[in-house]
Specification:
Elements lengths: L1 H19 L6 H4 L4 H27 L29 E4 L3 E4 L8 E5 L4 E7 L5 E6 L2 E6 L5 E4 L26 E11 L2 E10 L7 E8 L4 E9 L22 E7 L8 E11 L3 E12 L2
Antiparallel strand pairs: 1-4, 1-7, 2-3, 4-5, 5-6, 8-9, 9-12, 10-11, 10-13, 13-14
């Protein structure tokens, strides 16, 4: 490209010189042609052309730079601090009626009856792991470990050992846990009334002074067919009619009764028998349930 521009410039200068020397034009009409001025003009033209050529070549040689996309700097994830595991407070749930004593021994007096469904706070345990200290109505008492009667929840094994009272407060020797067996015996007709008779066998050293018998007709959907209670509920024999004896002594067998007058023969009946150590259904009480068929 540069050689071509030089050739064009030389030719242009040559033409100008010839024009100046043309015989048809006199020096007086055209004036004197200055050869140096001609070459100076030609040189300036060549320089301008060379500068334009170099600019174009530089533009062609320079690569077009594509914009570099911005990149996001990754933000490190913030570590989540693990929350501490919160253990629930130790609790005891009653799943079968049981008793609470004044100390960790069956030789110590009963101070409360624990009903099914009660939930109590556990505050301590015995050294041998057989007794648990709970809070019942604001007072502390002791429950014997029996998996059929109670369940434990929470971190109970973190509880401190407690020195429970060991001196008997009611009897001099060990006593069996309060309990009685219940069975349906027969039906007695006493006057116009018909009674279902149940045998109760006292398996503990407690003396029961009063009783209540509730009977429901499950087949007919009658929730309370009858309710019989009093202080003379203990019949001396299964064939006797009310009224009965005043009490049922330790390790003895007696009979209680409930009215079923009007029950349809063959219906399924459900009875709840409750025995209490004091008159008027007071003191320590235990209850048992039984299902039988109306004769």
């Amino acid at each position: 490209m540069l050689m071509k521009a030089q050739h064009v410039l030389i030719c242009f200068a040559f033409v100008l010189i010839l024009s100046a020397c043309s015989p048809g034009t006199s020096q007086e009409d055209q004036g004197e042609v200055d050869a140096d001025a001609v070459f100076t003009a030609a040189a300036e033209t060549l320089s301008a052309q060379l500068a334009g050529t170099q600019t174009a070549q530089a533009a062609e040689a320079s690569p077009t730079l594509s914009p570099v996309p911005a990149t996001e700097t990754p933000v490190p994830a913030t570590a989540t601090e693990a929350l501490p595991t919160i253990e629930p407070d130790p609790e005891l749930t009653v799943i079968e009626e049981t008793v609470c004593r004044n100390g960790a021994s069956t030789a110590i007096a009963i101070v409360a009856t624990l009903e099914v469904g009660e939930i109590l706070s556990v505050t301590g345990r015995s050294q041998d792991g057989k007794w648990w200290q709970v809070v019942k109505d604001g007072e502390e008492c002791w429950v014997f470990w029996n998996e059929d009667a109670i369940t434990l929840e929470g971190n109970v094994f973190s509880l401190a050992f407690v020195n429970a009272p060991t001196v008997p407060t009611k009897t001099a020797g060990p006593t069996p846990e309060p309990n009685f067996w219940l069975s349906f015996v027969n039906v007695n007709k006493c006057g116009n009334a018909v009674y279902a008779v149940f045998a109760v066998q006292n398996k503990g050293n407690e003396t029961y002074e009063s009783a209540r018998v509730n009977i429901h007709d499950q087949t007919a959907g009658i929730d309370n067919l009858s309710s019989t209670d009093g202080n003379l509920m203990f019949l001396p024999s299964q064939g006797a009619c009310p009224k009965g004896n005043e009490s049922l002594g330790p390790l003895s067998t007696g009979y209680v009764y409930g009215k079923i007058t009007g029950a349809t023969s063959g219906n399924t009946l459900f009875a709840t028998v409750r025995l209490c150590t004091e008159n008027g259904l007071a003191g320590f009480c235990l209850k048992r349930n039984i299902t039988f068929t109306a004769p």
